[in-house]
Amino acid sequence: MIAKHIEQLAPSGIREFFDLVLGMPDVISLGVGEPDFITPWRAREKAITALEEGLTSYTSNKGLFVLRRSISRHLEKKYGLKYDAQDETLITVGVSEGLDLALRAILEPGDKVIVARPHYVAYPALVVINGGKVLSLQTKEEDNFKIKPKELSTLLKQNPKAIILNYPSNPTGVTYSREELKEIWKVLSPKEIIVITDEVYDELTYEGIHCSFASLDKKSRQRTILLNGFSKGYAMTGFRVGYACADKRIISAMTKIHSFSMLCGPVISQIAAAEALLAQKEVKQMRSEYNRRRDFFVKELNRIGLRTQKPQGAFYCFPSLKNFKIKALDFAKGLLMKEKVAVVPGTAFGEGLEYYLRMAYANSLDNLKEAVIRIERFISTL
Amino acid sequence: MNDLLEILEQNSRVSVEDLAKLTGKSKKEIQRAIKDYEKKGVIVKYKTVINKDKIKGEKGVVAIIEVQVTPQKDVGFDMVASRIYKFPEVKGCYLLSGTYDLLLVVEGKDIHTVANFVSEKLAPLSAVKGTVTHFMLKKYKEDGVVLVKEEKGKRLAITY
């Protein structure tokens, strides 16, 4: 009854663990993949006013023009990128839909897509759902979980159609400098490959300046599908607003699918998002707060013996368990049962990550402090 | 404002040790910076925001009083302001633009105490031309802190 390629999608091995967490009260959760801040008030207020004014209809397929224009201006100001608000910008339902549309628009059955591991859970699944094949590129802790251009060029021999680049990264918090991206582009540019970038954590960059892949040169802009959204930097996860910017032909193809399958993003969310772009002060405040917590938390994890590299962005860190010879799922289960602290086992983010954990520091300082005390106590029993 | 002041403004009880970890500085540097701020008057005082409505038996009233005054030669409003803000009943005193000059926050045990303060101490001052007293009915937000309990959105305990 169910399509084979869907039935064969590997069910998440840690679903059971997730259910365990969700069923337990009073847990300090470092497993949450979203901000602990509430959406800036001015965006919420705008949404309330829009409801009062009765703005409840469909928008154009591509999304409200005012939002597209604001995004276009924002990208130009921030990254020097010029995307036409009319033809080269599409409002999506979160980055998730943006990625789905991008893959649907470009993949033919059997086309290969490079996904670097550790990866956000949805990447390989969406490639498979859209009839593609995943080419995994394992990154290593000793390389800071960054893509090595040399290893990338080996994979390119298999003629992949696209590569998904996510930086700052969920789950590692790693990001790339302009120079590092140039090295990657040097390897990619001779090939006819499309670069899909998931830059949803761009506002949460703590070291260096975020560089948008499309801004490297003229050719990189032509071959990039830039995906971003409001969920993380603007604390708007539940509003579900993302956007895609790319060459006219690509956006037109994505819009075609979007107009049949989604019609348009929710209007109230789009109105709130346009306002959120003006909340740069609040965004900066949230970033400073995450940055302080990052300093605190990573230092503390290393102090209690959990080897953790300092992430440069997002709100995750990816500690190693190799000093303890205990697998991530066992560690996570033990920590949850004994100390009521939830973390996500690395195995959620791809194979070969049995000895890593993802911990989110999008949590109050008091909770982070208490979590460290509990983790330390748990480690002492190992 | 820098990181250190931002943190302390939110919570002055964060320990020196934690401040050091949060700002990436050493404990000594933090201690020195705080001392320096205190000396320069950047940090004025460490206080606790208390919601007095929640304390049993604590029945005080707060009044906001608009005061019209006659400024004095050479010293303007400063002299009369200092004459007024020295009363212990006066918890806050501000010079404003607009239809009146000084805005006072006055606290008292009950309405009569405040009324007595106004009629016996404040109004008789020769520089005071007139007063308008507003009694506070409910506090919603103070010092940037919302005092009424707000529902907080709940995140799922675990998500990708």
Can you characterise this structure?
Chain A is of the alpha/beta class and 382 residues long. Chain A has two domains: 4-39 and 281-379, Aspartate Aminotransferase, domain 1 (Alpha-Beta Complex); 42-277, Type I PLP-dependent aspartate aminotransferase-like (Major domain) (Aspartate Aminotransferase, domain 2). Chain A is 42% helix and 13% strand. In chain A, helix 5 runs parallel beside helix 6 (122-129). The longest helix of chain A has 24 residues, at 280-303. The radius of gyration of chain A is 21 Å and the shape is globular. The mean pLDDT of chain A is 96. With 160 residues, chain B is an alpha+beta fold. Chain B folds into two domains: 3-40, no CATH class; 60-137, 2-Layer Sandwich (Alpha-Beta Plaits). Helix content of chain B is 31%, strand content 21%. Chain B is built from five helices and six strands. Chain B has helices at 3-10, 16-23, 27-40, 78-85, 111-122; strands at residues 61-69, 90-95, 102-108, 128-135, 141-142, 145-146. In chain B, the strands form two sheets. Chain B has a four-stranded antiparallel beta sheet with strand order 2-3-1-4. Chain B has a two-stranded antiparallel ribbon with strand order 5-6. In chain B, strand 5 (141-142) and strand 6 (145-146) form a beta hairpin. In chain B, helix 2 crosses helix 3. The interface between A and B is medium-sized, with 29 and 17 residues.
Key attributes of the depicted protein:
heterodimer, A: 382 residues, Aspartate Aminotransferase, domain 1, Aspartate Aminotransferase, domain 2, 2 domains, seven-stranded mixed sheet, three-stranded antiparallel sheet, 12 strands, 42% helix, B: 160 residues, Alpha-Beta Plaits, four-stranded antiparallel sheet, 5 helices
Q: Layout of SSEs?
A:
The complex is a heterodimer of chains A (382) and B (160).
Chain A: H1 4-7, H2 15-22, E1 28-29, H3 41-52, H4 65-79, E2 89-92, H5 94-106, E3 112-117, H6 122-129, E4 133-138, H7 149-156, E5 162-166, H8 178-188, E6 194-198, H9 218-223, E7 224-229, E8 242-245, H10 248-261, H11 267-276, H12 280-303, E9 316-317, H13 328-339, E10 341-342, E11 344-345, E12 357-360, H14 365-379
Parallel strand pairs in A: 1-10, 3-4, 3-5, 5-6, 6-7
Antiparallel strand pairs in A: 2-8, 7-8, 9-12, 11-12
Chain B: H1 3-10, H2 16-23, H3 27-40, E1 61-69, H4 78-85, E2 90-95, E3 102-108, H5 111-122, E4 128-135, E5 141-142, E6 145-146
Antiparallel strand pairs in B: 1-3, 1-4, 2-3, 5-6
Helix pairs in contact in B: 2-3
